[in-house]
Specification:
Layout: H1 2-17, H2 47-56, E1 57-58, E2 93-94, H3 102-116, H4 118-121, H5 129-151, H6 158-162, E3 173-175, E4 178-180, H7 182-193, H8 224-236, E5 242-243, E6 249-253, H9 255-258, H10 266-277, H11 281-288, E7 291-296, H12 319-331, H13 338-349, H14 358-377, H15 392-401
Parallel strand pairs: 6-7
Antiparallel strand pairs: 1-2, 3-4, 5-6
Helix pairs in contact: 2-13, 3-5, 3-13, 5-7
Length: about 400
């Protein structure tokens, strides 16, 4: 009872401290999200998200900067779908077509809810910074997926993402008692906690061809930076990231303008960042260019076959893989059967502390309770207080060695 009472008081104090954020975006990093524990062995499990991404994401390969051909109107109609030929063949695809029914949509909602409550079960400061970064990226991505499937088959997401009523500004999440929008995560929590590292923006999927790739696996503390580097290389060396047809103007994605706060001296910092990853002839064009223009866009959703892409030819897209994926979904053995294959994963992660091993869950629960009791009289408790302390004799030996 004592622990529950204190926990309620803590949440109440947290809500009061950040009451100004209930109707507006947070403008500084909340105290509850500060801190980390270097060398921490605690890891968050994403088995459910991994399974969902593996079943639902199709990798289309790196760009070779080929442009798509405009499709011809089918026989019997004069209508044809206009596409952005420069970028239409690029970017991994998420099979939104498999998430039209409520039973599929709830998979994303359950994963989001499960991730959302992790910081209420254990303070994020007990994790390494890499583990925390992976957590925020996964939470962001599963939340945006959840929101897109609600409006699908809407296929052009410009208004959805950057209008005055952008989904990114909605307070969709409540983390450790604090209401947050996806923009709060991107432009306050991640930017401040990770020193505005530009690599972060490549881990924030937004559901459009003109944005960074969604990957076939969840981010983890172990893979997060290698995955972000890979996403940055892929995006920057694609037509949807950079493109130039002359020496005067170097065109880049409008993504960079929307993330201007990650580049304090925008043009010089952006150019330096791009040159770190850019290869081939585009690198020389950037070096020789007189100005950078942020005008590359493609707001079409990254679904599989609803956007009527033209495949084949000189692209790096594997058309055989695409056809296999479509055939599999129709046969009931591929992505179309996603709800059957993933429900057990999602259900197992919905329980309290379900994202940790049994041993870690016990330790984290004990740590949570001890933190509350300790804070009530002393202030804070460190993670090391939960471990077996060396006896005085062993401690003395270690001091002699030093």
């Amino acid at each position: 009872m004592k622990i529950r009472t204190f926990f309620k008081k803590a949440i109440l104090c947290s809500s009061i401290a950040f009451i100004s954020t209930s109707n507006a975006s947070i403008d500084k990093l909340p105290e509850v999200f500060k801190g980390d524990t270097p060398g921490s062995s605690f890891e968050i499990s994403y088995a459910d998200l991994d399974a969902l991404l593996k079943a639902s994401v199709l990798e289309t390969g790196k760009s070779n900067r080929a442009s798509a051909k405009q499709g011809k109107a089918p026989i019997g109609t004069r209508l044809r779908v206009n596409i952005n030929k420069l970028t239409a063949l690029e970017g991994n695809r998420f099979i939104f077509e498999s998430y039209k029914e409520d039973e599929q949509k709830v998979l994303l909602t359950n994963i989001r809810k499960s991730l959302e409550k992790v910081p209420s079960e254990v303070d994020l400061k007990h994790f390494t910074k890499k583990e925390q970064l992976a957590y925020w990226l996964n939470l962001y991505n599963v939340t945006i997926l959840e929101q897109i499937v609600k409006i699908y088959p809407s296929r052009k997401l410009e208004d959805f993402l950057i209008s005055d009523e952008s989904v990114l500004d909605e307070e969709l999440l409540t983390i450790a008692g604090i209401k947050l929008s996806l923009n709060d995560i991107q432009h306050t929590i991640l930017k401040e906690k990770f020193n505005a590292d530009p690599l972060i923006i490549y881990g924030l999927y937004q559901g459009v061809i003109g944005g960074p790739n969604i990957r076939k696996h969840a981010y983890t503390g172990k893979n997060v930076y290698t995955s972000l580097e890979s996403n940055a290389d892929e995006f920057i060396n694609s037509n949807r990231g950079t493109y130039s047809a002359d020496k005067k103007t170097f065109r880049v994605s409008s993504l960079y303008e929307r993330n201007e706060d990650y580049f304090p001296s925008f043009k010089s910092d952006l150019k330096k960042h791009l040159l770190t990853h850019l290869s081939g002839s585009m690198r020389y064009k950037l070096e020789d260019s007189k100005r950078i223009k942020t005008n590359i866009d493609n707001w079409r959703v990254t679904d599989l076959y609803g956007t009527t892409r033209t495949f084949g030819g000189g692209t790096s897209t594997n058309s055989a893989a695409l056809m296999d994926a479509i055939a599999g979904s129709k046969a009931g053995n591929g992505p179309g059967a996603v709800s059957v294959k993933l429900s057990s994963f999602v259900d197992s992660k919905n329980s309290s502390y379900g994202r940790f091993s049994k041993e870690q869950a016990i330790l984290l629960q004990s740590l949570k309770h001890k933190t509350m009791d300790y804070n009530e009289t002393q202030g804070v408790v460190s993670l090391t207080e939960m471990s077996d302390q060396p006896d005085k004799e062993e401690k003395a030996k270690d001091e002699d060695k030093d």
